Amino acid sequence: MDSPFPGSAPLHVVHAPGYDCPLPEGHPFPMAKFTALRQQLETAGGACFHAPQPATTRQLETSHAAGYLQALSTGTLDAKAQRRAGFLCTPALFARCALETGGTCRTVELALAHGLACNAAGGTHHAHFDFASGYCLLNDLAVAVHHARELGVRRVLILDCDVHQGDGTARLLADDRDAFTVSMHCAQNFPSRKADSDCDIGLPRGTGDAAYLQALHAHVPHLLDRLQPELVLYDAGVDVHRDDRLGHFMLSDAGLYRRDAAVIEMVRARDIPLACVIGGGYDRDIAALAARHALLFAAARDALAGRPEPCFAAAQPAGDAA
Ligand SMILES: [Zn+2]
How many Å lie between the centroid of ligand 1 and the Cα of residue 191? Predict the structure, then answer.
């Protein structure tokens, strides 16, 4: 609980070593980022770490078919379904994803207790009711909405700023009148067949800091005021970064920090509890990738301390890189 900002509250961070589950050599998913991020957060200080419990079968069944969960947990998903997942779906990987989903549920609890909390994983928004897709097996966001309901929260807004549309979340919560799905993503990117979120903000390839932040400011305050959620779940995917392999956006490090700082400020200014997840990020340079994810935590720590990161403190975004 060491804080570099004397007098400021620690940032509540959920993480477990089990977030990092070994994959076959050469697998393109950057699994090592979860351990690297934890190390960077420990070095930065100011965090209070919480270890999650795996989501229970009962929790997972709020959003997923029992037969699908059974196949995942026993490693018996068929080959075609595993290809769509992007993973060899072993029981160990299922356990890792259940832990990550439990982590997002724990983050909701901490957000409700303290106002702001972050899961150092999560945002598996391509997971559907009975199939996995795009490196997502279990939809932690949808499960966390149901967990919030058990804690007495009804109206939840999911603000998904990963570069890919949150199609699984949108479909899982399509009939839930008190869960509002907002996805700000690259229109010409995976998934090719988009779902209908309650609000889709599709931006073109090459979008840079200025246009991105302009879109964020044009939509989010209005949505918060109109929908008046009792909880916001924020997916802070860093695959919007210019160096991301799967993104096609052109955000800089400063743009990422300003996005996260702006979301945190907009939500906290309205006294709405905010639970953050890190979302997607794909770079072979694990240290650089973890540093990108760490910007969310820096923005959150700085918000608690009441001061922005000096190097990213400019009030206005820089010009577009594209
Ligand atoms: Zn993504």
Answer: 10
Query: How close is the Cα of 279 to the center of ligand 1, in Å?
Result: 7
Each residue of 96-155: pLDDT tens digit? 999 999 999 999 999 999 999 999 999 999 999 999 999 999 999 999 999 999 999 999
- Amino acid identity at 130: D
φ and ψ of 249, to 5 deg: -100, 175
Distance 290 CA to ligand 1 centre (A): 15
User: What distance in angstroms lies between residue 68's CA and the mean position of ligand 1's atoms?
Assistant: 23
- Cα(302) to centroid(ligand 1), Å: 25
The C-alpha angle with vertex 67 and arms to 61 and 73, in degrees rounded to 5, equals 80
Each residue's pLDDT tens digit, 209-250 = 999 999 999 999 999 999 999 999 999 999 999 999 999 999
The answer to whether 199 and 174 are in contact (CB under 8 A) is no
- Ligand 1 centroid to residue 255 C-alpha, Å: 17
What's the 190 CA to ligand 1 centre distance in angstroms?
A: 8
CATH number of 11-309: 3.40.800.20
User: What is d(CA 137, CA 132) in angstroms, rounded to the nearest whole number?
Assistant: 5
- Give yes or no for a contact between 82 and 72, defined as CB atoms under 8 angstroms apart: no
Indicate the pairing of strand 116-119 with strand 274-277: parallel
